[in-house]
Amino acid sequence: MERWESSVEKAIREAQERGEFDNLPGAGKPLPPINPNDPDWFVKQLATREQLDFTGALPPAIALRKEAAGFPESLRELRTEESVRQVLIDFNRRVREDRLRPGEGQLPRILAPTVDVEALVEQWRVLRVAARREATADVRQDDGIPTTVPDASGWFRRWVGRRRPGRGGWPRRPGT
């Protein structure tokens, strides 16, 4: 007796025979567990899978605390002491503005602490010195060959400047 097969089942069977379901991502792995008591399981899995950053959705005080926890490492890429000071002063300004906002509901108010600008500037200096040492150590490890092209403006410009006519360099042509 021949088994009746719907068109969908037939299409799936034919695709399996062609091998279209082989080597799919996650093949042979169990499905991730789902907590039936967690109403936000889908959002959490989506955020993990897509590597979404929800810091913009945090309350301002918690976002400020998270930002402060990243100091002084987050300041490492800044080049000047003045720019570091500006970032830290702006951070303290935002903390003070957040403290002036009225509290919401019956919950206790969360406050973000201000940062000590001078202490963080000093830590930034130490990080910059360490970064410079790492950079010079990298050049030494590469047989002393720097990765940047040297500036040819020094000796070459002096040499070319001496060789110009009328400056005692090239001899003048007769009649000039």
From TrEMBL:
It comes from the Bacteria. Residues 1-39 are annotated as: Disordered. Residues 8-75 form the DnaJ homologue subfamily C member 28 conserved domain. The lineage of its organism: Bacteria, Bacillati, Actinomycetota, Actinomycetes, Micrococcales. It holds the Pfam family DJC28_CD. This is DnaJ homologue subfamily C member 28 conserved domain-containing protein. It comes from Phycicoccus elongatus Lp2. Residues 1-21 have a biased composition (Basic and acidic residues).
